[in-house]
Amino acid sequence: MHERLSYYVKRDSALHRLNPLTKIILALSIVLVSIVSPWYWTAHILLLLVIVPLSFAGRVSREYFTSAIRLILPAAGFIFLMQAFFQPIGNTVIFKYLFLDVTQESLSFAFRISTRIAVMISAFTLFLLTTHPSELMSDLTRRGLPPQFAYVIISTLQILPQMQAKAQTIIAAQRSRGLDTESTFFKRAGSVVPLVGPLVFGSLVEVEERAIAIEARGFTSKSIKTSLHEIPDSLSDKIIRWVLILLVLLSIALKIWLS
Fold this sequence. Notes:
mainly alpha
């Protein structure tokens, strides 16, 4: 069975061809501008006019909208409800049930915060969909980042896909042994318990095997390492990075000036 070790989707697009560092700065810039901008509607503009068009430009719109339905909308919706019902601000009550009430101010605050959360998750979802982990690690180490830090970053990006792939493998194995994983909700909930042990211990074994493998390949060696695959870093990449940094600085300056 082929295990998908990352969320990367191989496509031929301008977004895929960007340098990994450029895409990191792009994602971080989108998040920072949505947070520090003095205007509440900035996050909405970034989501509708920047992130969604970028998903089409990167030819990963189907994967992005799938992630939006499964992850982004539930996370943003949960934050919206929590902030709307439990944020003690404002006096204009528009909805009340028992001890819970929603004010116009808390509703506005919840909408703003949940949109920022959606922008944050969306930006890094696009980054993961269009950036291969090996290219990211090669580019970061080439720029002087210690291999240990690069490995931590890559392992963090890969942990969820690896856990999902291993969980699917364990579920298929347990199902072949007669475990009920497709009937009622309570039976499916009960079937989760036999999956936890193999999933946790299997992941621990994989960590040990990976540590042995990278040590055998001279991961901690102090000698200069070379790569067969050079990551291009064009002039346009450098211009894009500087423009993004300037936009973030401009947003911070406007925030300070208008506050």
